[in-house]
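Collaboration report, partner site 2.

Our partner group contributed sequences for two proteins of shared interest, and the home lab folded both. The records are reproduced in the order in which they were received, starting with the first partner submission.
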Amino acid sequence: MGGYGSGRDSWGGKDTTEEKKRLDVRWLRQQGYLTPGQILSLQWSRGERPTGSAGGWVAQDLSSITMVYQASARGGAWETIRQVVPLTWTACNYGGQRPWLLCPVCTRRVAVLYLAYRLRFACRHCCRLCYQTQKQDRTDRLLTKALKIRKRLGQKGGGILERLPEKPPGMHGRTYERLARAAIAAEEAQLRGLAEVRQALGAKLRPEPGVG
């Protein structure tokens, strides 16, 4: 399934969603997999490095996806696992239906399941995963936000010291101004946060009067 898949950790050492193999119903639909009886052949990778594969099929009545794959616990023997993942559908406001996966553990309706629950796919909550941004401290989150906005505005590379991109073709002027203000605000707050950290570290490193 190609294309899937810093800061102080305040989440008790939880793994992140980015570190796990995933089953994304939106990607499956986009690729045309959600058709009756469709055979699945999925590949996971991190960058250009393959990290796993799985096969399976979609039920004829579109009520489930059966996954077949090999997995092992740390240091344990490899197992061939067959897991049935329920599918459900909800009506869209403007016609058509939207697919969802039902977590096989808690039956929560979600778009993504992760291979992190006793060698099975389950939702983020059952797998006790957090998002990478939740493991970042405030300055990291502000930097991530600013770079995300810059990317939406068309910036291809570089950091927050680069000049903000011009308004992309087709973007409404008010939308551009709102995003630009949000990026600048996040960047200024991030730089203030870094200055406060440096100041605090400097105070710790300075010897107390009469010491030394």
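Second partner submission, folded after the first:
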Amino acid sequence: MSEHHLGLYPPIEPYKTSFLQVNAEHSVYYEESGNPTGKPVLFLHGGPGSCTKPWHRQMFDPKYYRIILLDQRGAGKSTPFASLSNNTTWDLVSDLETLRTKLKIEKWLVFGGSWGSTLSLAYATKHPQHVSGLILRGIFLCREQEIQWFYQFGAHHLFPEEWEKYQAVIPPDERDDMVGAYYKRLTSDDRDTRVNAAKAWARWEGATISLLPNETSVAEFSAEDHAVALARIECHYFMNGAFFKTDNELIENLHRIRDHKIPGIIVHGRYDVVCPVENAWDLKKAWPEAELVIIPDAGHAASEPGILNALVRSTNAFRNLL
């Protein structure tokens, strides 16, 4: 691992995989890898409704960290698949506490990107005494302005050809509320209607996620299973304002993180179209003690070389800090 450009750590397999029964219906997949007696780090995936991937383990030094990944309710290997029932931000926060208690962890480093940054902040404001640090990427605060920018008016100026594909699923007379129109289709009784809407919704995200065109992202996002969980769960959360009491709840509650002097590193791509860099700037202003790293040649995806480099640097920095 050269100092100038840090790649991923070598691939590793989990030493434990399991399911956590969090209520009568939801069973959440989780896994542990790296050092069983190491410093615990919790990885939170995006979406909501995306999933963990094997390479996510590789952002952490396996000799130092006890690496914990989980698929949030309805996502990835968790069951029931793509379920919207009892699936809210605070349900997910509660699941993290249930898992922490089960694993007998007093404090863990929490690492989240995109929606994972939202969930990390929600968890840390609710349970600051159990967070040793935060590494956040591609900040998403789930405010109405952010939903509007990406799904209604704003990002379409930069990707007009992709926007037309996203818009095509919705009749012109319903396009003044794209999230609402998609929600109707994503929760339809007709399977084809649900799948077609999910693929179009997820494709829009996959096509805009990186600085340069990436057909692999488009293909991964558009794959049916991934698209259905991602689109249904995302849309469900956005229709409900992420189940926050106010539009700016995360920023308003940030004093709880600051009062506990939780250290933080924020990594954001300058040309992030999905979650504009303004989100990270707003977070930094509310949390001046955190370190903000803006990557000059990156979009939203964690796999962008500059972002990946900064994330591995961040996990290494916490290795020394903790």
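Feedback sent to the partner group on the second submission included the following. The radius of gyration is 19 Å. The mean pLDDT is 96.
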